[in-house]
Design brief:
By secondary structure, the chain is an all-alpha fold. The protein folds into two domains: 60 residues; 114 residues, Helix Hairpins, CATH 1.10.287. The protein is 91% helix and 0% strand. The chain is built from six helices and no strands. The longest helix is centred in the middle third of the chain and has 68 residues.
Length: 195
């Protein structure tokens, strides 16, 4: 009977040692999760396994380790989901502000171009009306001023075109951001459907 008791006691000792090692590994996994949360690092099975000095298989096979990692992943996802709308709102507000600024600049350019065209028309009318009465020096001065105004109109037209392109780009970006927000809202509303 002592021969059969000896193998049983060795088996019991081996099982107890294995349980202690397993519990120590689970504790290392929990410690690694604590460190990752404190460092605000991304929680993954591979990262936890590296930090805890255990295999990924252990994390997947051990119910306690698997549950701890799953809880940490769920917590990280919840925090990420809560922070995402704030970040998206800030980015959306930035694009909206740029679009509004571009629209204001475009309106200003249109106003300036209209004013310059009106002034050019007035000057051309004066030239026609008074051409017979003016000397060559006055005609040259008005022609020079007219040329300068035409160059200014060309410059403003170019600026207007640039601002229209910026406005189109800002509106396009704003539409993209709106679609992204709608997609994120649908993911938040139906988290099971997005996975």
């Amino acid at each position: 009977m002592s021969a059969s008791a000896s193998p049983r006691s060795r088996t019991a000792a081996a099982v107890a040692a294995r349980r202690r090692r397993s519990q120590a590994a689970v504790q290392r996994v929990q410690d690694a999760l604590t460190v990752l949360r404190r460092e605000k690092a991304r929680v993954t099975v591979a990262a936890v396994a590296r930090r805890a000095n255990v295999s990924r298989t252990f994390v997947y096979d051990n119910p306690q380790a698997r549950a701890a990692v799953a809880a940490a992943l769920a917590d990280a996802e919840q925090q990420h989901t809560q922070l995402r709308p704030a970040l998206d709102d800030a980015q959306h507000a930035g694009w909206r502000e740029r679009a509004l600024n571009a629209e204001d600049a475009l309106k200003s350019a249109h106003t300036e171009i209209t004013r310059q065209r009106t002034r050019i028309g007035e000057l051309l009318g004066q030239i026609r009306d008074l051409r017979a009465e003016w000397d060559d020096e006055t005609i040259a001065r008005i022609t020079t001023e007219n040329t300068t105004l035409k160059q200014r109109v060309r410059q403003l037209t170019t600026e207007n075109r640039t601002l229209e392109e910026r406005l189109a780009a800002a509106r396009s970006t704003l539409r993209f951001q709106d679609r992204r927000i709608a997609d994120l809202e649908s993911r938040v509303a139906d988290p099971a459907g997005s996975t």
